[in-house]
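Notebook p. 47: complex prediction with 3-methyl-2-oxobutanoic acid.
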Amino acid sequence: FEKYIPFVPLKMEHRSWPDKQITKAPIWCSVDLRDGNQALVDPMNLQEKLEYFHTLLDIGIKEIEIGFPSASETEFEICRELIEGGHIPDDVTIQVLVQARPHLIQRTFEAIRGAKHVILHFYNSTSTLQRKVVFHMDMPGITKIATDAAKLIYELSQSVIAEGMDLRYEYSPESFMGTEMDYAAEICQAVLEELHATPEKRVILNLPTTVENCMPNYFADELEYFISKLPSRDCAIISLHPHNDRGCGVATAEMGLLAGAERIEATLFGNGERTGNVDIVTLALNMHTQGVDPELDFSHINRIKEMYERCTKMKVGERQPYAGELVFTAFSGSHQDAINKGTQYMRDSGSGKWEIPYLPIDPADVGREYEPIIRINSQSGKGGAAFVMQHSFGFDLPKAMHPEFGHIVQVETDRVGTELKPERIYELFRENYIDAV
Ligand code: KIV
Ligand code: ZN
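Predicted complex, structure tokens below:
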């Protein structure tokens, strides 16, 4: 990522730097195996969850929500297998979700027995709408659900902590974005107090958009206000859990980090309820291309994509940022020409800086190849054919040949009406320049 030149908005050049920027990776937490899994037509079986879990480890994710063990026998058994089967490295914390309900909390404590590092994540819904339509409760009633749960969790945790478990707590005021911010701060403060949070033993306050209902800048303003109203702010890790209902999950997360969040819950390729959770791949690689180390390894994106598609039975779209089949492909002539020139420029300059127009990231950084960057169809120009000859076959065509050979290729694309593969480009070259001699 050092090869990337951080983006400085042009209008800001007279200043030293924009007021705020993301300068370091947040704490990442994967919720693939819980939020992602619960949104699948066919939830993953044990083998699939294990394979997925190991991929998350390979990526370098250190906090992984493995499920909702009190929700079903299957979920409980998967949790037990992960713990008893020795799948969890010592530097990884598993997270388990539970509703703020006593019998489910009890069952969750049974599910985590014997684990080394655990985040116990409990939630209840706090929004105006949910209070009115679902719970028929006022604010004190909703607060009591949260504080009673916090009290029970704190009590039950004392014995497992005494036995050596590193147990931390996370509270989510579900539907945070539909909650009055003063009330959100009040209920979170009450939970922090019940859990005896201190600056040394911070509790994760996870603020889910749940259903994304506003613009990212508005969310960031609300978040700043919420933080300013939280008396024990220094006893909390502010975590975000953006969903993508308005298609703005990534922007919400980025704006939220600027507004003071330190942790992000996300999923690979944005799987999750409805339109999904925020996509961890896009977030991490957006940082990467701004010269910030995301501390995650996506250098083999195709392998991750293959595992994801197999285990979830979902497809990664062709235009999915950084991972889609077509995102390192340029069909149009002017783009191909510019990429070609950028490649040449980089080679000549030797600076090592990534300065190729139309390609925000070096495909090699995610284990993709240069070869498919340029694909040739009837929209392609002279530069594209020359690029393919160079990158696929090592022929450095002299500049003077580009227009003529480009024309030969264009005539062929018009004739066949489909994309030409590199092998066909080579054939055309051979027919016209080698065999013709
Ligand atoms: O989206 C949401 O609100 C959730 C909570 C359970 C954290 O998934
Ligand atoms: Zn969610």
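Notes: Residues 35, 208, 241, 243, 273, 277 surround zinc ion (ligand 2) (CB under 6 Å). The chain has a mean pLDDT of 93.
Next step: compare against the earlier run before touching the bench.
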